[in-house]
Amino acid sequence: MNKVILVGRLTADPELRQTPQGTEMTRFTVAVDRRYRRDGGQQADFITCVAWRQQAEFICRYFNKGKLIGLEGQIQTRSWDGQDGKRQYATEVLVDNVEFIGSKSESGSNTQGAYQSNFGGYQSAPAPNPMPQPQQPADDSGFVDLNFGDDLGSEDDLPF
Predict the structure, then answer these.
(1) Residue 17 phi/psi, 5° resolution?
(2) Among candidates 45, 43, 60, 44, which has minimal Cα distance to 95?
(3) Could you report the per-residue pLDDT of 97-110, keeping only the tens digit for each?
(4) Measuring CA to CA, which residue among 55, 62, 71, 60 is closest to residue 120?
């Protein structure tokens, strides 16, 4: 299985580009902190990521330099002959899914929680809600009815 999950900060503003065939894409770098520190200093890996079509548009529209980004994808390697005739290699993450990470003020959105993009179909990820109190006592089976009410949010809460 080839699956990568990263959380890090963009090192530059992503740019939307088009292939000669008109397909949108963006290539960007994410700085991902390591769990350990060498000699007391912060260690990070700078990972090149590529997104295509609606995923690329979403990233370029809602993310910029320094923003936390969560992404899911797969590692791909490619090679080509350079101008000097030597074989060149690149390893990058092909992005499948993107999420806002961090607080409301960090993401620049007007809602709490994370929002994710699934190939252009935007859906809100569930934000943690405190457990509601039971509205009626438990019956003999031990189950309790929970009333979540209408306070779960609406489409008006989405940042786009």
Answers:
(1) -125, 165
(2) 60
(3) 999 997 656 555 43
(4) 55
C-alpha to C-alpha distance for 118 and 58, rounded to whole angstroms: 10
Who contacts 157 (Cβ-Cβ below 8 Å, separation ≥6)? Answer: 110, 111, 124
pTM (predicted TM-score): 0.63
**Tokens, residue 20:** 């000669």
In tens, the pLDDT along 58-105 reads 999 999 999 999 999 999 999 999 999 999 999 999 999 999 997 656
The identity of residue 137, as a single letter, is P
Give dist(CA 148, CA 131) in Å, integer. Answer: 9
**Exposure class string for 50-59: b at 16+ Cβ within 10 A, else e:** bbbeebbbbb
**Cα distance between residue 114 and residue 110, in whole Å:** 11
Return the residue matching tokens 């806002």: 100
Per DSSP, the residues of the chain read ---EEEEEEESS----EE-TT--EEEEEEEEEE-SS-BTTB--EEEEEEEEEHHHHHHHHHH--TT-EEEEEEEEEEEEEE-TTS-EEEEEEEEEEEEEE-S-HHHHT-SSSS-EEEETTEEEEPPPP-PPPPPSS---TTS------TTTT--GGGS--
